[in-house]
From TrEMBL:
This is Peroxidase. Pfam families: peroxidase (PF00141). Heme b binds at H198. GO terms for molecular function: heme binding; lactoperoxidase activity; metal ion binding. SUPFAM superfamilies: Heme-dependent peroxidases (SSF48113). Ca(2+) 1 binds at D69, V72, G74, D76, S78, E90. One of its GO terms (cellular component) is extracellular region. Its main location: secreted. The gene is PER51.
Length: 332
């Protein structure tokens, strides 16, 4: 009987504890702002379209900004925060210095458009605006449109040091890529799909010059995994004495269109980075490359699934973790 009473007391104690546990954070969901700011998606889309009409760099700049944001401290717009005298922010880490200013400007202008509506002012996070803008630039570039999950808060921390080791490098092999993506809950299939964002935008010569000059420290050598004709073209655009300001299209065939040509380029050994070409060269990833090179619909479906999962990485939905910034570049 004493044992039974003790067990009963323990059970009551556990249940009482259950009653005072804080509820779990709300989950992201589609149409999150339907009652808060009903027209937010069209407001953001109109602002992004206007920016896109001014410069195509809006597309790769915004897409890359989203990726760099989510992989460091989660999708919380911390990459947009400006440095201060007391804090060097994420955007000033060397891995982020090449982020196009048009990506930041797209979010800032979309935020201004949202806040111009009285009902919406300071009700929509910068993180969600970046997520919507990313979907919109993909569509504007000819890629698929998809429903976005919303409900993120903006992060409360942004430090340059937190970027170290969080972003994939041009020299990465498949194991390194898989490991980095797995750390964010993303599969090899997700990684290959998201790598296809390199179908848009540009890179600077110093990011891949090691493949076209003195590869492996052998004078005059070219990376044997690189198409020789393509390598010669790259040498023509990127002098041996690398000018870091010279930019080259990531996709030499359709650089302004979001499509599956990226995978066909890999089949022709025309991946600009080692981390691109390895996807076609490694037997573990080659079947996926071949499938998506032949089937754009299959690629689009996989990309939507992957970027949706990316948008869930490290999100803040609890007010102890984040808030809605009045200015995307400054903490409240």
């Amino acid at each position: 009987m004493a044992k039974l009473n003790l067990e009963l007391l323990l059970l009551i104690s556990v249940c009482t504890t259950c009653l005072v546990v804080q509820p779990s954070s709300a989950q992201l969901r589609q149409n999150y702002y339907s009652k808060i700011c009903p027209n937010v998606e069209s407001i953001v889309r109109n602002a992004v379209t206007k920016k896109f009409q001014q410069t195509f760099v809006t597309v790769p700049g915004t897409l890359r900004l989203f990726f760099h944001d989510c992989f460091v401290n989660g999708c919380d717009a911390s990459v947009i925060v400006a440095s201060t005298a007391n804090n060097k922010a994420e955007k000033d880490n060397s891995d982020n210095l090449s982020l196009a200013g048009d990506g930041f400007d797209t979010v800032i202008k979309a935020k201004a458009a949202v806040d111009a509506v009285t009902q919406c002012r300071n009700k929509v996070s910068c993180a969600d605006i970046l997520t919507m803008a990313t979907r919109d630039v993909i569509s504007l570039a000819g890629g698929p449109s998809y429903a976005v999950e919303l409900g993120r808060l903006d992060g409360l921390v942004s430090t340059a040091a937190s970027v170290n080791g969080k972003l994939p490098q041009p020299s990465f092999n498949l194991n390194q890529l898989n490991s980095l993506f797995a750390a964010n809950g993303l599969s090899q299939t997700d990684m290959i799909a998201l790598s296809a964002a390199h179908t848009l935008g540009f890179s600077h010569c110093n990011r891949f010059s090691n493949r076209i000059y003195d590869f492996g420290r052998r004078k005059g050598a070219i990376d044997p995994s690189l198409n020789k004709t393509y390598a010669t073209q790259l040498q023509g655009m990127c002098p041996r004495n690398v000018d870091p300001n010279v930019a080259i299209n990531m996709d030499p065939i359709t650089p302004r269109t979001f499509d599956n040509i990226y995978f066909r380029n890999l089949q022709q050994r025309m991946g600009l980075f080692t981390s691109d070409q390895i996807l076609a060269d490694d037997s573990r990833s080659r079947p996926t490359v071949d499938t998506w090179a032949a089937n754009s619909n299959a690629f689009n479906t996989a990309f939507i699934a992957a970027i949706t999962r990316l948008g869930r990485v490290g999100v803040k939905t609890n007010t102890s973790q984040g808030n809605i910034r009045r200015d995307c570049s400054v903490f409240n």
